[in-house]
Write a structure and sequence with these properties.
Layout lengths: L1 E10 L4 E10 L6 H11 L19 E4 L2 E4 L5 H4 L3 E5 L6 E3 L2 E2 L2 H9 L8 H5 L9 H5 L12 H5 L1 H5 L5 H12 L7 H8 L13 H5 L6 H14 L5
Parallel strand pairs: 1-5
Antiparallel strand pairs: 1-2, 3-4, 3-5, 6-7
Helix pairs in contact: 3-8, 8-11
Length: 237
């Protein structure tokens, strides 16, 4: 057993404050989420924490841990190399309670870029055609499809912090993922949406979005691929 101090930024809807807890970690391989739930179950049932899969798939447990946006379920005590852990809600998001933030604005921005395959409806539903893909066509967008929309990239982005209307890396990555899909015919529609200051041209190339992605997606690179496609007036990225 190892004693760990967790400093949590609390919020009750009216005021915020830092609260400190001391917990016993069974091993260095315990996750920050496990420690937070230990606090909630054994010391303070009022602590609000959002989580679900515990496998870095659902993206529910995003928070700022020791100054870096991370998934609490994926962050182990051994990764932090310290006995003092600070935890606060994701930056650039409205806090609902304690470590739970409102991700709805992020999802609304993703919806704006039409995150689905766009084709002639008749071609899809009134024919027997199959829309196959070659391996090289899949490779163009496969890595970018790993996004779990956890919001970490939005929390890390300095432009999102200062420009509320900026679509942000999560939405722009989705724009690339679907536009680069060989089955999609919606590039012209999405190009009009992202070819603005609030779109790809608002990106300052900080690449903090890519640095914090828990799934290894590179949204910073996908944004640059979108810029290149717009400048080339390409038929698709």
């Amino acid at each position: 057993m190892k004693s760990v101090v967790i400093k949590i930024k609390r919020y009750d809807g009216k005021k915020s404050w830092w609260q400190e807890y001391k917990v016993e970690a069974p091993s260095e391989r315990v996750s920050v989420l496990d420690l937070l739930l230990k606090v909630k179950e054994e010391q303070d049932p009022t602590l609000a924490v959002r989580y679900s899969c515990r496998m870095a798939i659902c993206g529910s447990c995003g928070m700022v841990i020791n100054g870096v946006p991370r998934l609490a379920c994926q962050t182990l005590l051994s990764d932090l190399k310290t006995d003092v852990i600070t935890v606060e809600p994701l930056w650039n998001h409205k806090v609902i309670k304690d470590l739970v933030v409102d991700l709805e604005p992020d999802f609304e921005k993703v919806k704006k870029v039409k995150p689905y395959i766009i084709r002639d409806i008749k071609e899809i539903y009134e024919t027997d055609r199959e829309f196959g893909q070659k391996p090289e066509e899949l490779d163009k967008y496969y890595n970018f499809a790993y996004c779990i929309q956890c919001g970490l990239c939005m929390a890390a982005c300095p432009v999102v912090a200062t420009h509320e209307r900026f679509l942000g890396p999560m939405a722009l990555n989705a724009a690339y993922r679907w536009s680069a899909d060989s089955r999609d015919q919606g590039w012209k529609e999405r190009a009009k949406i992202i070819d603005v200051e609030e779109g790809v041209w608002g990106c300052h190339l900080a690449y903090t979005c890519s640095a914090v992605c828990p799934r290894g997606v590179d949204p910073g690179f996908s944004i640059q691929l979108l810029k290149a496609a717009l400048l080339r007036r390409a038929k698709r990225p």
